[in-house]
Amino acid sequence: DGGITQSPKYLFRKEGQNVTLSCEQNLNHDAMYWYRQDPGQGLRLIYYSQIVNDFQKGDIAEGYSVSREKKESFPLTVTSAQKNPTAFYLCATSQWAADTIYFGEGSWLTVV
Amino acid sequence: KNEVEQSPQNLTAQEGEFITINCSYSVGISALHWLQQHPGGGIVSLFMLSSGKKKHGRLIATINIQEKHSSLHITASHPRDSAVYICAVRSQGGSEKLVFGKGTKLTVNP
Question: Which is it for strands B43-49 and A107-111: parallel, antiparallel or unpaired?
Fold first, then answer.
């Protein structure tokens, strides 16, 4: 089946640790995005990538890092520099900027 | 003031009722998206609009570019329509960024 796979669904992080969220797509889409969702807030853009080996910061990139070594994959690392990482993280893709956007099922990250 | 405002924040309806969710925005846009977020968190794209009206099943989305306003209508609502409905806009100029509203939580009771 075509789609976007995010993993893990639930993740617990100890303070001071880095964690990596996986996002894989087989839709052959060029653009991939990472969003963060907090209760009562709209989605906010962390990073996006339009092409392999290139990515751009979004509105809240501090404390996060990404890579785009393959078209299919866009992993997000939440570093220890992110002071308030507990949130719901969503990966999304589109064929190009003006096209329909497709979302993964999301990953819940909790700091313990 | 947020660039994208949705109303109402919460909406409770009885099965069969006609539902309207509103979205107003303050910037020039190239497209507007309506999204549905299920209780588990996954998001599905319902519509992408740049003008006029679109219909899919019991869902209808309209947009008025001059008034910077869009509506999502659900006819003959059903409990399975219970979800959070999110409006998002893409600014003019080819920006990669979508700006999201905070969502409208819809509960349809049987």
Answer: unpaired
Q: Can you list the positions of beta strands (E) in A14-106? A: 19-25, 31-37, 44-51, 54-57, 64-66, 76-78, 87-94, 102-103
Q: How far apart are CA A32 and CA A74, in angstroms?
A: 7
Q: Cα separation of B98 and B43, whole Å? A: 14
Element spanning B85, H or E: strand B83-91
For tokens 């893990």, name the residue.
Answer: A8
Q: Which residues of chain B have pLDDT under 70?
A: 1-2, 93-96
**pLDDT of the residue at B28:** 87
Among A43, A48, A106, the residue with its CB nearest the CB of B96 is A48
Closest by CA to B32, choosing from B88, B97, B103, is B88
Give me the residues of A, 66-105, that contact B with CB < 8 A. 88, 90, 92, 97-105
Name the pLDDT band for A8 (thresholds 50, 70, 90).
very high
* A38-41, long-range: CB < 8 A, 24+ apart: A38/A87, A38/A88, A40/B102, A41/B102
Q: Residue A11 burial by CB count (10 A; 0-12/13-18/19+): exposed, middle or buried?
A: middle
Mean pLDDT along residues A25-40: 93
